[in-house]
Every structure is written in structure tokens, then in C-alpha cells.
Design goal:
147 residues, two-stranded antiparallel ribbon, 4% strand
């Protein structure tokens, strides 16, 4: 069971790929990124354009164009990717999706999920894109999703 949407998973893998492979002035096309992370090209293209509009990755048009990351972009926390793609629901809403669940009227899972949510928030806030991609490289983890 995943905690992020499929779109967020693809976004995170694409951002981590760019962070890992981004040598000075290197730019990567959608097709290359899609192949390397195992994502559908058209779907990934929309995700990358959205991330670029939100300033999490850079893009350049033209013959030497493509997607890239600057050191400033790589220094952002992972939580920025999740919030840009999935919004803040994971960090704010009831684990069961109940509208009436609140601090004053908690569902049976409220307090347990509140602690889990706090841990997820801390984990994603404390880890930068650069640090996480470095750890993945150190462990030689592949960015393609397994079935």
C-alpha cells in the first residue's frame, strides 16, 4: 500500500532521477527520463511541466532544452514535491477520509493516525531532495517501480 498518489510517485522518481544525474548544464528530455524511471512518457510530460511551473525543476526549450535541477532546487525538502502534486490532505485530513473527524470529534483512528501523520511530515520535511537522492545512489537503488 502506497501513501502517495501514483502521480506523486512518478513525480518523486523523476525529481530524484534529475537530482542524481544532473551534471553541470545537463538537460534531459521527457523520453529519456520516462525510460530511466519506467513511467509513461505522455503522463510524465504533464507531471514534469507541472513541477517546472511550480519551480521544483527547471526546463528549457530548444535544441539543447530539457529538464534539469539547480543546486537550489535540489536543496528543497521532499515534502515540497508531495505538496505540489498531492496537496496537503495527507498532512491535515482524517486517515479514513471522514469530514466530521476532528480534535473535538475524533474517529477511532484519529490519535494513532495523527502520530503517523506527524512522523511522515517530519521525515519529508527534514530530508532534502539532494540528500535523499544521494542515499539512493549509495544504496544503488533503481528508480523504476517494481510490480
Amino acid at each position: 500500500m502506497a501513501i502517495f498518489s501514483k502521480t506523486c510517485e512518478h513525480a518523486m522518481r523523476a525529481v530524484l532521477y534529475l537530482a542524481q544525474t544532473n551534471a553541470a548544464n545537463s538537460r534531459f528530455g521527457i523520453k529519456d527520463i520516462a525510460i530511466e524511471i519506467g513511467s509513461p512518457e505522455l503522463y510524465l510530460g504533464k507531471i514534469l511541466q507541472d513541477l517546472s511551473r511550480k519551480g521544483l525543476i527547471g526546463s528549457a526549450k530548444g535544441p539543447n532544452g530539457g529538464f534539469f535541477m539547480t543546486p537550489e532546487m535540489r536543496s528543497k525538502p521532499l515534502i515540497d514535491i508531495v505538496k505540489a502534486v498531492d496537496g496537503e490532505d495527507l498532512f491535515l485530513n482524517c486517515g479514513l477520509g471522514l469530514k466530521q473527524c476532528s480534535e473535538l470529534n475524533p474517529c477511532p483512528l484519529h490519535n494513532q493516525f495523527k502520530a503517523i501523520r506527524a512522523n511522515i511530515t517530519a521525515m519529508l520535511s527534514e530530508k532534502t531532495i539532494d540528500a535523499f537522492s544521494g542515499e539512493m545512489m549509495d544504496r544503488m537503488l533503481n528508480l523504476k517501480k517494481t510490480i
